[in-house]
Amino acid sequence: MPGTRRGRVALPRPTSRGWTTVAVGIGLVGAGLVATTSLAVTAGLLVLVLVVLGAVVAMVAAGPIRATRQVPRTTIEAGAVFRATLLVEGRQRALGVVRVLVRDRLDDHFASAGDLEALVDVGSGRPPARLTVEAIAARRGRPRLGPGTVRVADPFGLVHVDRVVVAAQEIVVVPRTTVLGAIETGVLSGAVSAEAGRTGQGGSADDSELRPYRPGDPIRRVHWGQSAKRGELHVRQTAQAQPPEATVLLDVRRASYQELGRDPFAELSDMAGDAAFEHAVVVAASVARVLAARTSRVALVTADDVQPSPAGDLASVLVGLADVTLRSDARPVAEVLPEVRAVDVHGMTAVVTGQCTAEQASELVARTPAASRGLLVAITPPDAAARGVLDRAGWRILVVPVGGSAR
């Protein structure tokens, strides 16, 4: 059964009371040997035997315990409530009902809304005991839930045994998405509609586009004249055969999110640009959600991972955004754009960044794939020069500012 683990029983460990009892037993044995008093030696040995018996009882009680973790969802959105249930059952026929301490563990990605441990009674014939964990996913990433453990003590509280009953499990926390305003949604819709209109027409040879031959392409679509002229096989690809697609290219350079012109208090609290980058990740997720509803495929590309996900759906983009990190040595997005073209992603390319200068805008325009329509999504508005470069190239501009900045 998924989520079930038969953990190895750990070695018993004395409790504070157990260590005191061991010390008393050793002291009695030592004193009896020094004073040649058999009664003290016998009493000390009986005390030590009591501790050993407690260890045996604790190990026997912990051995048959089984547990199962029930997790409704392993992928959740940041800010959502996460729930998991640990079902613990015992099969100790000889010992009857045993009281155990059940514990589960959460990474610091979660803000726990309840207790992560509970004292429960387990035994043969009893229904499984439950430990329900509720927490809020505070930030994106891949935190671990667990391992789930049980602690069993002997009836005298001298020795306890800790045992892992459920292995740790990875939970994917994807970035939350925000509702974009009517103007922002209109910009995205207009960009997709324009691209869909370009790709939705055609069907004749005049409207076809050429691209390099790929294994599996029909031979009848090879353009022999252009292939001979270009020195390699090229095939006709009609615009109608290419449904609108979208690529979300996220800028992960730290320099793009520092000194964004926010007010002094916001800037002092985010000198490294981490908060601004997290806002950009939320914006990228929100843009991807809107584009996924209007295109046949949406893919995520970063400087770390140029290969888009094969699935090309919103879920793949959100999972990819759960792993992105801000880097000081990341490549500029303009250097990544030619590689996006190399993987044959056509449609609209939405570049999500913190700021864009006129020089960066010129590089984006120059390196945008020929079959792609550009969309700049920035945290701070580009200056007049950069806006002019992008406007002349037919790029659309969307500004979603972080709190504390001015449009």
Descriptive account of the structure:
The structure is a single chain. This protein has 407 residues and is α/β, with parallel strands linked by helices. It has helices spanning 16-35, 38-62, 182-200, 224-230, 264-268, 274-292, 314-321, 333-342, 358-367, 384-392, and strands at residues 13-14, 66-70, 75-77, 81-89, 98-103, 110-112, 117-122, 129-137, 144-145, 148-153, 159-166, 169-170, 172-174, 208-212, 234-238, 245-250, 297-302, 347-353, 372-378, 396-399. The strands form six sheets. It has a five-stranded antiparallel beta sheet with strand order 1-11-10-5-7. Strand 10 (148-153) and strand 11 form a beta hairpin. The chain is elongated and about 105 Å long. Residues 1-7 and 194-207 have low confidence and may be disordered.
Mean pLDDT: 80
How would you name the oligomeric state of the polypeptide chains in this document?
single chain
Main beta sheet strand tally, sense and closure = 5 strands, antiparallel
Structural class: alpha/beta
Content of β-strand: 25-35%
Order of helices and strands: EHHEEEEEEEEEEEEHEHEEHHEHHEHEHE
Q: What's the number of helices?
A: 10
**Radius of gyration, Cα only, in angstroms?**
32 Å
Which of globular, elongated, flat, extended, rod-shaped describes the shape? Answer: elongated
Fraction of residues in H or I helices: 25-40%
> What are the segments in which pLDDT stays under 50 over at least 5 consecutive residues?
1-7, 194-207
The overall strand count is 20
Strand order of the largest sheet: 1-11-10-5-7
How far is it from the N-terminal to the C-terminal residue, by CA? 54 Å
